[in-house]
Amino acid sequence: MTKQETDIFQVQIELALANMIDELNDDKTRASRREILTQEQRRYEAAQERIEQGRCGKCCACHDDIEIPYLQANPAAPFCEYCQEERDARRQ
After folding, report:
1. In angstroms, rounded to a whole number, what is the distance separating the alpha carbons of residues 18 and 41?
2. Rg for the chain (alpha carbons), in Å?
């Protein structure tokens, strides 16, 4: 992953976190929505850590590169599409 791509994902993650924090601080946000936002916030914070550690764009399971279109759709993705599908299938 190039430095420019990493920087783009960093900005996307920071913006998403800022939006989540704003929504979490909104008194009108329901408890169930707060839980979902809290989980999403944890995912984005973990993605920030991966960027800081130089592991941005690497699957946490198979360690292959995560395809750019998949990351563009989900900047906080910890797994490549294949490994995510495998995890989802095991949960069902």
Report:
1. 9
2. 14
